[in-house]
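Milestone 3.1: sequence recovery, worked example.
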C-alpha cells in the first residue's frame, strides 16, 4: 500500500509494485480525492495493471481507521507500507513562515506518524515500511545548531521527538527558530523529523519477537519532476520511485541499513 499515490512518485511506486509483485498480490492506490484516485487506477488498468483503490486522507484519523479496518477485514494484514503523502509550500508562497512550519510539520511529520501508528499493527512478519524522506533532510541537518543535533542523536522516545518538533513550530510562530539552532526550512525540518521517527520505530521492531523481520527505512527519491517540485528536477517519477520500491521489496532477512535513509539504493545517513 502506498499513501498519496494518485500521481507523481506515489503513482510510480504503485506501477512498479504491480509489475514486480506476484499476480495474486494486492496493491492499494490511495488518495484523498476518490475521483482522482479512481481515475489513476483506470489509467493503470489501461497499462494492464490491476491496483485497487481506497480513499485515504492521512490528516483525517477516521479515514485512516477506515482503511485499516478494510485491510484487516479483506486481507488480515499488510506486507508493504510506503508512506509517501506529503506537502511542500512553493518558494514564492506568501504564507508566513509560522504557518508553513505548522502546516508542513503537521502533515509531513505528525499526520504521517498518526497514520503509521494506526496501520502498523497490521504489519506481518518481515514486512517493510518505507517513509519517503528527502536529500533535503541531509542539507537541513548541516544547517542545524550543534545542541539541536545532539538532541536528535540522543533521541530515545517519540515523545522527545514530538517535543522538539513542537518547539520548532512554537519558535517559528515568534520568528525565533533560527536563534535556537533550528533551520529556516519547514519542509527540510519535517523530513529530518520523519527520518528520526523512522529510526525510533525501527528500533521497536528490532526487538519485536512476535513479528520478527519487520524493518522501517527512510528513502530519498531525489530531485524529481513532480507537481511538488513545480516541474523542476533531474529524475522522472519512475526513477524517483526506484529506491522506494527497492527497499519495499527487500527480501526476508535483508535488513542492512534498517532505520536509516537510502538515496539511489545507497545508504545516506542523516544523523552524522
Amino acid at each position: 500500500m502506498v499513501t498519496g499515490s494518485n500521481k507523481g512518485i506515489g503513482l510510480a511506486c504503485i506501477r512498479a509494485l504491480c509489475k514486480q509483485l506476484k499476480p495474486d498480490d494486492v496493491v492499494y492506490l490511495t488518495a484523498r480525492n476518490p475521483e482522482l484516485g479512481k481515475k489513476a487506477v483506470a489509467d493503470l488498468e489501461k497499462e494492464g495493471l490491476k491496483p485497487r483503490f481506497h480513499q485515504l486522507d492521512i490528516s483525517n484519523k477516521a479515514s485512516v481507521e477506515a482503511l485499516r479496518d478494510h485491510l484487516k477485514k479483506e486481507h488480515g494484514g499488510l506486507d508493504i507500507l510506503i508512506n509517501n503523502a506529503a506537502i511542500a509550500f512553493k518558494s514564492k508562497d506568501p504564507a508566513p513562515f509560522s504557518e508553513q512550519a505548522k502546516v508542513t510539520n503537521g502533515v509531513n511529520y505528525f499526520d504521517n506518524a498518526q497514520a503509521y501508528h494506526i496501520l502498523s499493527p497490521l504489519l506481518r512478519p518481515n514486512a517493510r515500511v518505507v517513509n519517503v524522506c528527502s536529500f533535503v533532510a541531509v542539507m537541513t541537518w548541516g544547517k542545524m545548531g550543534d545542541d539541536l543535533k545532539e538532541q536528535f542523536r540522543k533521541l530515545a522516545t517519540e515523545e522527545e521527538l514530538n517535543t522538539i518538533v513542537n518547539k520548532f513550530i512554537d519558535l517559528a510562530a515568534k520568528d525565533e527558530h533560527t536563534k535556537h539552532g533550528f533551520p529556516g526550512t519547514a519542509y527540510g525540518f519535517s523530513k529530518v523529523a520523519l527520518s528520526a521517527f523512522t529510526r525510533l520505530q525501527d528500533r521497536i521492531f528490532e526487538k519485536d519477537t512476535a513479528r520478527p523481520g519487520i524493518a522501517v527505512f527512510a528513502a530519498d527519491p531525489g530531485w524529481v519532476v513532480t507537481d511538488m517540485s513545480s516541474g523542476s528536477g533531474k529524475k522522472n517519477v519512475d526513477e524517483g520511485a526506484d529506491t522506494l520500491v527497492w527497499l519495499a521489496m527487500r527480501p526476508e532477512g535483508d535488513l542492512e541499513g534498517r532505520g536509516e535513509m537510502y538515496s539511489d539504493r545507497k545508504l545516506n545517513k542523516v544523523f552524522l
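The mean pLDDT is 96. The first strand starts at residue 28 and ends at 31.
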